[in-house]
Design a protein that fits this description.
alpha/beta
Amino acid sequence: MGVFVVIELNRTYGFWRQRSGSIPAEEPAESQLLSNELTSTPDDGVVNIFAGDDPGLQLMDLDGDPILLSDFKGKPVLINFWATWCPPCLEEMPLIETYAIRHEEELVVLAINAGENENVVREFVSTHDFSFNILLDPANSAVKKFFVYGYPTTMFFDEAGNIQSTHIGELNEDLLVNYLFKIGIGK
């Protein structure tokens, strides 16, 4: 099982590096060194979050309002996939909150809960006072669409909606500042 997880994480990392332009398309992604299964990018992969919202991808906020990623066109977006049972997720959320407040006029922060019951998420949110958008993904539709294999996973999109970075694991302040700089925050 551990080998499978490592292979999948490497495939995801290589996929996103190739999709974001961090490595040239003709250079084999690191994931292809482990497996030849990923020779091209999936048709339903997320390259640009503003290019046509998928009507089958239903993300709701805690007020029951649907959230469309296209609503945030023109602003950099941080998407954080998390779960209430994930200790690193809980550790990094106050840091994300600090930067969400600090850059509230220029940065959109979306925290997508991975597959948990709405009541569990509401109970968690009631004990914390986060100002960023908490979104529900009870069927893990967004998790699948964004190829999330571990929590927390944080993705950074520029104002054009193109992915610039993906971080799997807990963020620290130095990492967060660097990723935000890549999407035009804190220049």
